[in-house]
Specification:
heterodimer, A: mainly beta, six-stranded mixed β-sheet, five-stranded antiparallel β-sheet, 11 strands, globular, B: mainly beta, seven-stranded mixed β-sheet
Chain lengths: 112, 114
């Protein structure tokens, strides 16, 4: 059973701070990793994808991947109240797999 | 670009009725996925389709659930004889390629079974 684990939160950070969201996965063969943002009552929106070990930066977002530790993280710099949402970690096991396995999400609250 | 269109946004059905959820993928996307999100649960894969073909339905319950993506028209997720446990948000996503995971999700259909 492939599993993706996230701390459910809520994670509260003050405006302007760095928010750090973490995710671990059980399938060592996983190859593709994604972060989706989901506002309450809305659909998930892709914000980052990462495929190789290391860091990937896009604006205020940095995704970090460590396959040896089976660990993915998302850093949000200069957090804004508009970043308040649930962040979903998703993993594709690769090898032609079509499915994403999602974590339950971490709820982030950015306090003005 | 209208994005992924799902309808209806909200659907209320009585136990035993049928629910039909529709999804039109983004223009240029021929790969459609259905996911279900139960309250306080993560998104769970249900089925992956291309035009006229079901590629992977390993996440679909064996009974009462079916999906199609005809040559013309939207993809349909059909739930027969709904039960209270079917109450959930059903999201459709599309992508230009089959593998990966960079999806565009539709706004979802919130199914409530009373």
């Amino acid at each position: 059973q492939k599993e993706v684990e996230q701390n459910s939160g809520p994670l509260s950070v003050p405006e302007g701070a760095i928010a750090s969201l973490n995710c671990t996965y059980s399938d060592r063969g996983s190859q593709s990793f994604f972060w989706y943002r989901q506002y309450s009552g809305k659909s998930p929106e892709l914000i980052m994808s990462i495929y190789s070990n290391g860091d990937k930066e896009d604006g205020r977002f940095t995704a970090q991947l460590n396959k040896a530790s089976q660990y993915v993280s998302l850093l949000i710099r200069d957090s804004q109240p508009s970043d308040s949402a649930t962040y979903l970690c998703a993993v594709n096991s690769g090898a032609g797999s079509y499915q994403l396995t999602f974590g339950k999400g971490t709820k982030l609250s950015v306090i003005p | 670009n209208a994005g992924v269109m799902q309808n209806p946004r909200h659907l209320v059905r009585r136990r035993g009725q049928e629910a039909r959820l529709r999804c039109s993928p983004m223009k240029g996307h021929s790969h459609v996925y259905w996911y279900r999100q139960l309250p306080e649960e993560g998104l769970k894969f249900m089925v992956y389709l291309q035009k006229e073909n079901i590629i992977d339905e390993s996440g679909m319950p064996k009974e009462r659930f079916s999906a199609e993506f005809p040559k013309e028209g939207p993809s349909i997720l059909r739930i027969q004889q709904v039960v209270r446990g079917d109450s959930a948000a059903y999201f459709c996503a599309s992508s230009p390629t089959g593998t990966g995971g960079e999806y565009t999700f539709g706004s979802g259909t919130r199914l409530t079974v009373v």
